[in-house]
Amino acid sequence: MTKKIAVLPGDGIGTEIVAEAVKVLEYLNADMDLGLVFEYGLIGGAAYDAHGTPFPDQTLALAKQADAILLGAVGGYKWESLDISMRPEKGLLGLRSHLQLFANLRPAILYPQLVAASTLKPEIVAGLDIMIIRELTGGIYFGQPRGVRLLDNGEKQGYNTLVYSESEIRRIAHVAFQTAQKRNRRLCSVDKANVLECTELWRQVVAEIGKQYPDVELSHLYVDNAAMQLVRAPKQFDVLVTSNMFGDILSDISAMLTGSIGMLPSASLDANGKGMYEPIHGSAPDIAGKGIANPLATILSVAMMLRYTFNRADAAERIEQAVNTALDANVRTADIYSEGMQKVSTPVMGDAVISALKEGV
Ligand code: NAD
Description:
About 40% of the residues lie in helices and about 20% in strands. It is of the alpha/beta class and about 350 residues long. It folds into 2 domains: about 1-100 and about 270-360, Isopropylmalate Dehydrogenase (3-Layer(aba) Sandwich); about 110-260, 3-Layer(aba) Sandwich (Isopropylmalate Dehydrogenase), CATH 3.40.718.10. Strand 6 (about 145-150) and strand 7 form a beta hairpin. Helix 10 (about 295-310) runs antiparallel to helix 11 (about 315-330). The chain is globular. The structure holds nicotinamide-adenine-dinucleotide. Nicotinamide-adenine-dinucleotide (NAD) binds near residues 286 and 335. The site of nicotinamide-adenine-dinucleotide has 22 residues, from helix 4.
């Protein structure tokens, strides 16, 4: 049976890195008879330019009928002055919410070859392997009311709403506990329960759900402390679960622990395991078109796709191993380059992964 992948490269480096991930998938598709078919669509600024909207109906239709979605990144200087409703990011948020991709899994693994690329001391980060689970379809990024209003005194006032219902917290908590069960059985829930009522409810509901998972050790941290602990002693964590905005920020911190944001993949899953897979970084307009972006986060994202949506852990492991082998061969894109390494372009890094796959490691 064929499995359809909606490929949405988006903007900026999105097109460059997705091309490499598709190259890797195509190789494995032929080699392992995976039955994958690819269909391309537009999202973000590219969709706005072609259709006058960052989230065209045909893209939503394509994403709905696909078994999985591969996304590059959206955004760029060109579209920054558009009304917020037409900005590229609206396409991405629309996709996440229409498909109810509420569970965002963001592993942060430090490859031993990249210990020197982290800004933290080797003894702090060596061997790091944590999973951040971010709630993706609720919270302040979606809450209503929102906007900028004019006050009676003539001053403008911006406002957003942080809102979570119990059911939204429960479903992400279940994902987090079940993920912890498959790892080292430790879960830390991150909130700001001392100040925000909404996250006080978050803490209560997570604790309640925790009673169903007595084999998982649950702890709670306030987000400011969690940010500090991630930099002070990140290896104390196994799985972290948190709200949309806190997860956005904490996972970027964990990106730096691993050396580069260009190394971090993600999966965004619905209740049935259908998913959208994308690197955690953005469209990097500062380096777009230069052929120097790191494609490994996107390549590792398709490994997550094979594991989580297509249940092909064997194929996923081949990709992860091939990334390891490519790094062992000392090829590095600029973001992870250090002295003595061979600096390579985006496509050459993709080729290195394919060579490693061919070597059959
Ligand atoms: P960014 O992640 O695009 O870039 C941050 C920094 O990391 C830049 O210096 C960039 O060059 C570098 N970088 C990112 N990915 C890299 C890679 N694969 N290889 C090498 N270096 C890489 O974040 P930003 O600069 O804050 O945002 C740029 C645009 O991306 C904005 O329009 C923003 O809204 C959008 N954005 C999109 C997504 C998404 O599509 N999921 C996520 C974040 C930001």
